[in-house]
Amino acid sequence: MIAFVRGRVAGISLTSAVLEVGGVGLELQCTPDTIAGLRHGAEVSLPTSMVVREDSLTLFGFADDDEKQMFELVQTASGVGPKLAQAMLAVLRPETLRRAVAGDDVKTLTTVPGIGQKGAQRIILELRDRIGTPGSYAEPGTTSPATTGTADWQAQVQTGLVGLGWSAKEADRAISAVAPEADQMSTPDVARLLRLALRALSKA
């Protein structure tokens, strides 16, 4: 398995990054917060987790080892695959997930698209004894927010939502819901707007 990747950032989208390693471009699926810390041309090292399927090999990249470990841990719960695990980390940071599971906080878990009340209760039951004590890891927050021009954020948020499994129509509805928040930003913070859009869709 590939434990980490070190290379030059050759491409960035809202849901993935391409790192050039030895002349080969590796595409890593990443959360908005991880993407926010990357810059074109920069040399970076990202912890990774490879998901192997019969018809695909998918490499997921993370801001730090805590995010990687949480991605792998939540998949040990029944009904949680890589796509849902990534959605969980797109909406909730690892420490927030830890607190939600330890505190039986079903409401917080159901803000993640694809997790209903029963699913949240099952995740809490299965992970409570293994997810760790809240506060045992420092809350990530050293990366700079992903920002973009006013004309671009809507297209980028839509791409991210569609990539997470929502329809274009649902994505448009969520974008309309978060537009007032974007209007208050001097420069739109795409990572934050994507998280707000996901929460808006989970409440619909």
Automatic annotation (TrEMBL):
The cellular location(s) given in this protein's UniProt record come to: Cytoplasm
How it assembles, according to the record, is: Homotetramer. Forms an RuvA(8)-RuvB(12)-Holliday junction (HJ) complex. HJ DNA is sandwiched between 2 RuvA tetramers; dsDNA enters through RuvA and exits via RuvB. An RuvB hexamer assembles on each DNA strand where it exits the tetramer. Each RuvB hexamer is contacted by two RuvA subunits (via domain III) on 2 adjacent RuvB subunits; this complex drives branch migration. In the full resolvosome a probable DNA-RuvA(4)-RuvB(12)-RuvC(2) complex forms which resolves the HJ.
Q: Which HAMAP family match?
A: DNA_HJ_migration_RuvA (MF_00031)
Q: Which GO terms describe its molecular function?
A: ATP binding; four-way junction DNA binding; four-way junction helicase activity
Please list the GO biological process terms of this entry.
Answer: DNA recombination; DNA repair
Q: What exactly does this protein do? A: The RuvA-RuvB-RuvC complex processes Holliday junction (HJ) DNA during genetic recombination and DNA repair, while the RuvA-RuvB complex plays an important role in the rescue of blocked DNA replication forks via replication fork reversal (RFR). RuvA specifically binds to HJ cruciform DNA, conferring on it an open structure. The RuvB hexamer acts as an ATP-dependent pump, pulling dsDNA into and through the RuvAB complex. HJ branch migration allows RuvC to scan DNA until it finds its consensus sequence, where it cleaves and resolves the cruciform DNA.
Q: Which residues form the Helix-hairpin-helix DNA-binding motif class domain?
A: 72-91, 107-126
Note the Pfam families from the entry.
HHH_5, RuvA_C, RuvA_N
State the family named in the UniProt similarity comment for this chain.
Belongs to the RuvA family.
Q: Which InterPro entries match?
A: DNA_helicase_Holl-junc_RuvA_I (IPR013849), Hlx-hairpin-Hlx_DNA-bd_motif (IPR003583), NA-bd_OB-fold (IPR012340), RuvA (IPR000085), RuvA_2-like (IPR010994), RuvA_C (IPR011114), RuvA_C_sf (IPR036267)
Keyword set includes 4Fe-4S: no
Annotated Gene Ontology cellular component terms: cytoplasm; Holliday junction helicase complex; Holliday junction resolvase complex
Coding gene? ruvA
Cross-referenced Gene3D superfamilies = 5' to 3' exonuclease, C-terminal subdomain, DNA helicase RuvA subunit, C-terminal domain, Nucleic acid-binding proteins
Q: Which organism is it from?
A: Nocardioides aurantiacus
What protein does this entry describe?
Holliday junction branch migration complex subunit RuvA
Region annotation Domain III: where it falls in the sequence = 148-204
What does the comment on domains in this protein's record state?
Answer: Has three domains with a flexible linker between the domains II and III and assumes an 'L' shape. Domain III is highly mobile and contacts RuvB.
Keywords of this protein's UniProt record, alphabetized? ATP-binding, Cytoplasm, DNA damage, DNA recombination, DNA repair, DNA-binding, Helicase, Hydrolase, Nucleotide-binding
